[in-house]
Amino acid sequence: FGQSGVKVKTRLRPSYFQFTEPSAELDVGCIFCAGAGCRTCKQSGWIEVLGCGMVDPAVFGFVHYDAERYTGFAFGMGIERLAMLRYGIDDIQRFYSGDLRFLEQFR
Amino acid sequence: MKALVSWLREFTEIRGTSAELAERWSLAGLAVEQIAGDVAEFDLTSNRGDCLSHFGLAREIAAIAGGAALRPAERTALPQQAAGAAVQILAPEACGIYCALRMEAVRVAASAPAIAARLEGLGQRPINNIADWTNYVLWEMGQPTHAFDFDRLRGGRIEVRWARAGERLTTLDGVERTLAADDLVIADAERPVALAGVMGGAETAISAATKTVLLESAWFDAQAVRRAARRHGLNTDASYRFERGADPAAAPAAAERIARLAWQAAQPANALLVTEGKLPERPAIALRTAAIARLLGKELSADECGRMLTALGCERTGDGWRAPSWRHDLTREIDLIEELARLHGYQHFPARLPHFQGTAQPLGEARLRDKVRQQLRGRGFAETVTISFAAESECARFAPERKPVRVTNPLSAEAAILRTSSLPAMREQLQYNLNHGMSAPRLFEIGKLYEWNGAAPGERWVLTLGAADPGLDYRQWRGEVEAVLGIFDVPEYAAEDASDERLDPGVRLGGWAWLGQHQPDGLWLAEIALDRLYAAGARPIRYAPPPRYPASERDFSFVFADAVTWAQVEQALTAPAIANLTRLAPAEIFRGGAVGEGHYSLLVRARFQSRERTLREEEVQAGAEEIVRRLRGLGGRQR
Known about the structure:
The structure holds two protein chains of two kinds.
Chain A (H helix, E strand, L loop, with lengths): L9 E8 L2 E10 L16 E10 L1 H6 L10 E5 L1 H9 L12 H4 L4
Antiparallel strand pairs in A: 1-2, 2-3, 3-4
Chain B lengths: L1 E3 H5 L8 H10 L4 E5 L2 E4 L11 H11 L15 E3 L4 E3 L5 E9 L9 H9 L7 H13 L3 E5 L8 E5 L5 E3 L5 E3 L5 E4 L4 E4 L3 E2 L12 E8 L1 H10 L5 H7 L6 H15 L7 E5 L8 E2 L2 H8 L5 H10 L3 E3 L2 E3 L10 H12 L19 H15 L3 E2 L5 E2 L1 H7 L6 E2 L10 E2 L4 H13 L6 E12 L2 E12 L6 H12 L9 E3 L5 E7 L3 E6 L5 E5 L1 H7 L15 E10 L4 H9 L6 E10 L8 E10 L8 H17 L3 E2 L1
Parallel strand pairs in B: 4-15, 5-8, 19-23
Antiparallel strand pairs in B: 1-3, 2-3, 6-14, 6-15, 7-14, 8-11, 9-10, 11-12, 12-13, 16-18, 17-18, 20-22, 21-22, 23-24, 24-28, 25-26, 26-27, 27-28, 29-31, 29-32, 30-31
């Protein structure tokens, strides 16, 4: 977001996933209501964009990595979701419709 | 999880505006969706079953506040007696503790207004005083309890046991269920009376006629409850909490809480019968200072760590810590480290980029893929993405020889396999565009095809082209495909007529592409083996200086039978090579008129050129005669 010059607030807060520990989620300030609260952000003013965390040592165990030697981090975000937030796209189905009126806007 | 802030305040001090509270709690890991008036909506993670109640949330809020004071709700201390024969746990590993509270001379009536109001505030429906106490305590303490009509329990006793396969139970929702041998049940002397931790039975439920109540407050194993709930398709507030790990210490506490509520309604309870099974163990957890610094990248003082863990209810034991009975999710050092990080505050860790040794590796395909995109975009195609799940019948039409990879739990028949052909989806998208008024859509997709190769599923890249345009003809469409092939180092291939009921005209270009016009809708389609093209690599530029000496061109006009193809003509004229013949092309073709039926007239243009010198007229003439001879050899008649 920084590179494209769009100003947006972010926050990293604790969360839970079975394969990361500690876990976190990154929220961006809701672009639809500028943080005031609306339906899209369920009135919270924030939209989750990515889940992440330190790789849980048990996961290292499954693949025979020594958790005492290695640490890791993992993160994932829906790329369509990010594009939707960046461009204000209203429906995720549009990405798979092949609709030229949609595709040709992203030259 | 919905909660009333006023109810939370009963247990711990809460100060701040709704926005401040939402921010403070969310940043500590207790995610708040919103606080509107007295109603707070929390987005709890699945590992925090201990927060599924007002007291649980208050406990967490107090911990976040650094170990603030916590005031549990009032309970009536009751003398605990061993239950003896009255309550027997025959499945001790699945029921860690069973508390039974007997209440006599009960008057089933409407609930006290305060209780009804709080339940309504949560969107719950008040039923009667007894049922509402159990519901109230569930929302207050997170401990599910159940009230039985004691006089309807045969033999006046309770067994916690595994069902016998085939036993029947009609639950409170009126559904008669057949039980399996690994369903955990509460039974009386003769039959099951409740699905343990899930739902009570209809026959022993509280009614207006109930005189004596047996109140159950127990701890059931999460797996046992989950199994029974899934098998019978049930999801209750009770099963939800047991599945996420209930607090064994809350079982007797909840019974005493209900006793208190009953006393306030002038319905005293007498003794509390307690039977123990096998409670889960809470081992000591070692916590190494070095591990904290290693994982978090910051040192936390032993004092601060001690304070935070104590605030969470952990107890020091020897060198380590023991988690409180309500935290099933804290079993390892890493779990404690996460607690330290979140209570310290993620925002208080300085952000650093990890240092990285090594270089980025280029993906060989990426450049080639971009070239393909460039070509096609330049040719007016838009890139699209289609879904990889497909209907078997549609793929089988285009690729009957490919064995599909099946989806175990497909969402629908249209998504039952991973696609063996990308053409059905391309057709659909072209049609979509036509239906929405786009006049000449051209689309391409770089995607994957999936197929069983022997023992395992395989996937490979495929390039799919599609166009709908009445102005397009076969040669132009083939030109689009060959423009893409031209990017790669593709050896010579033969073009085979593959016209059939699917694509007509249709052609296969070696094993590189299958293209043609789909019938009956007239859509132009092409499936190109992109994986093979990537493997072939980019077409290298092989420089040759432009020829120094002039060329001579000769035209030959011949009539051939329809059966003679251009491929055969080309083959005849190039193998063996004719000296100095550098170019051969079909310049014109026509039928009808003077050309008889079953025949066509072909104008072949030949170019003669040498790299060493200007060719003499006799040399060119010799070549031309050779061409004529060979074309006659194919049965051609010169015009």
